[in-house]
Write a structure and sequence with these properties.
13 helices; 2 domains; alpha/beta; single chain
């Protein structure tokens, strides 16, 4: 039995879909804060269980009988370490045999502010005594295509990454990698640095988008403070705007680049090209 935390989120849903595709009939637990949002998962045969990161008493019950657990990192920036610890403690109490944790690329050496909570979670997981595997996910292409409507309106992507190369991969690629690890053997103790096959710059992303959209799209490189201000002006929460601006600025120094191709080896195919994710996002906009 495999359990997925945060199962109603984008990565969680994609991982469940990948598990069902790769091994139909595999028992899956969707461990979720709001079971009412998982009615579609229940209809597909998934066991939906209440699992609230902030209510530890719900977690051990949710993990009863689970062999492997995918701990998808919380999106509560600044507050997720306590949540992750609660999940790890509950999994240990429930005798879960393996925890796979979605960390971030090069957590042990990265200068991104985003890595701080991941690094501490990794250390706590290693010390827990529960067998683990670290899935250090790189940058999702969707992190940038999410702003496509605004990009088309203003004719530009904005950021602070200069000519730094970013190893984008589609969220579904990372989900499929997680599914392969959860379904396979011999992964305990492994650390996977997961990233797209090809590193591109923000200017490359703008050029690909321009070709597909049939209109001029530029890349405007801004100082980190100005980029954070623009994100705040667009309505993003301060913690998220600050994190994205920090990550973009440090991408200029290669912090979002990796050419090890561990992701494509895990999924047994090349990672999804950026242009395909952009094209999908354009179709979704109509």
């Amino acid at each position: 039995m495999i359990a997925i935390t945060g199962a109603t989120g984008q990565l969680g849903r994609l991982t469940i879909a990948a598990l069902q595709r790769l091994q139909p009939g595999i028992p899956i637990v969707a461990a979720v804060r709001s079971p009412e949002k998982a009615a579609d998962l229940k209809r597909s045969g998934v066991d939906v269980r209440l699992a609230d990161y902030d209510r530890p008493e719900t977690l051990a019950t949710a993990f009863h009988g689970v062999d492997k657990l995918l701990l998808i990192s919380s999106n509560d920036l600044g507050g997720r370490l306590a949540q992750h610890k609660a999940v790890i403690d509950a999994a240990k109490q429930a005798d879960v045999g393996l925890i796979a944790y979605t960390s971030i690329l090069h957590t042990d050496t990265s200068k991104l502010d985003l890595t701080i909570e991941h690094r501490t979670t990794e250390a706590y997981l290693k010390a827990s005594g529960v067998p683990y595997v670290l899935l250090r996910n790189g940058w999702y292409t969707e992190n940038d295509t999410a702003a496509l409507a605004s990009v088309l309106q203003h004719g530009a992507f904005i950021g602070s990454s200069g000519v730094g190369r970013i190893s984008w991969a589609a969220r579904a690629d990372y989900a499929e990698a997680a599914a392969h690890v959860l379904l396979g053997d011999g992964h305990a103790g492994r650390v996977y640095e997961l990233a797209g096959d090809n590193g591109l710059t923000m200017a490359d992303l703008a050029a690909e988008t321009a070709k597909l959209a049939g209109k001029r799209i530029a890349y405007a490189d801004l100082p980190q403070k100005d980029f954070a201000g623009a994100l705040l002006g667009a309505g993003l929460p301060e913690a998220l705007a600050t994190m994205l601006a920090d990550s973009s600025a440090k991408a200029a120094d290669g912090e979002l680049f990796d050419d090890g191709r561990a992701l494509s080896r895990l999924i047994g195919r090349p990672t999804t090209p950026v242009r395909e994710t952009v094209a999908e996002a354009l179709r979704a906009l109509g």
